[in-house]
Write a structure and sequence with these properties.
The protein is of the alpha/beta class. 37% of the residues lie in helices and 20% in strands. A hairpin with a 5-residue loop joins strand 1 and strand 2.
Length: 129
Amino acid sequence: MTTPVPHVSGHLREPKVVVLNTHYSGIAIGRDLASAGIEVHGLAANPKFPGNRSRTIHYRASPDSHTDPQGLLAALRSLATEIGDGAILFPTRDHDINFICNYREALKSIFTIPLAVNHVIGQVLDKEL
């Protein structure tokens, strides 16, 4: 059973998740969440990733967070218009986390971002620390 989450307008609705990168970790996340009744959308630049053909992920081709962050931001805005604001944005790799941190201000009004504040994330991603 899923737990409804507040929509931007304050009404409860079933959660939606957007997974950045539908490679093996993304497909595993998508399968787990979909089995709990959560609507999962997956974005990936690589057309050969296994999650692109998954029955549990609504796949959409998109620019890569590392090589075309502006393009991905536009794709995410378009997706939010289509599925509604407030979906949980789920990164699967360091590049996706960096993207979210760099564009947090633009993303936070249309997605739920389950990440710590940027300076904490920066410390976590710094391999020397």
